[in-house]
């Protein structure tokens, strides 16, 4: 098998979109973040062919055990416990029973981040929704040397759904301001939940759509006010 260390790659994601090209270091980071799994299809630029990630030797050591499909286990490191009450702080889950929440959590990954860490990088694939259990995050745009805050995210809020559903890249960085605990629902896991538990996925999808609609409506109102305030009668 050929040496692919100097190659560039394209990724065929679960949303049937192709991302890239990216270099090997970026691809390794995506593997570690479980954005690329061992059965994900990759296009190697030098060979001009599609291969599964597990067939690329440089990636093999970075795969998590049991990550051959999108249905991977939640991390079980010390201190990563959370309660159903914490999950219920998200209004979209208010109508779910405890058993339904338990089922939903099977499809999520729990993780923690320290202040100063970059959680999302502008331009990354929009391949997951994030739910902030505790802490505070900041969305920013960095243009030249200017760091501009475009919004703050607090516990009980979720984000990333727009990029995932529109198959677009992340529009801003998200950095950690205070110690944060989060849940991540990847696009692969969401599709798997729709296939396996449509009765659970349906209400969640509808609730997320309602939140997205309200956000778009609020943005439209703000835009209307800005346009109206700049209009001068002559």
Tags for this entry?
6 helices, Jelly Rolls, globular, Dna Ligase, domain 1, six-stranded antiparallel beta sheet, 234 residues
Please, could you describe this protein's structure?
The structure is a single chain. With 234 residues, the chain is α+β, with helices and mostly antiparallel strands. The protein has two domains: 8-62, Dna Ligase, domain 1, CATH 3.30.1490.40; 84-225, Jelly Rolls (Sandwich). Helix content is 29%, strand content 29%. The protein is built from six helices and ten strands; from the N terminus they run ββαββααβββββαβαα. The protein has helices at 24-32, 84-87, 98-105, 161-165, 187-196, 198-229, and strands at residues 8-12, 18-23, 41-44, 49-52, 109-113, 118-120, 128-143, 146-154, 158-159, 173-186. The strands form two sheets. Strands 5, 6, 7, 8, 9 and 10 form a six-stranded antiparallel beta sheet that branches. It has a four-stranded antiparallel beta sheet with strand order 2-1-3-4. Strand 1 (8-12) and strand 2 (18-23) form a beta hairpin. It is globular and about 55 Å long. 23% of the residues are buried. The model is unreliable at 66-80 (pLDDT under 50).
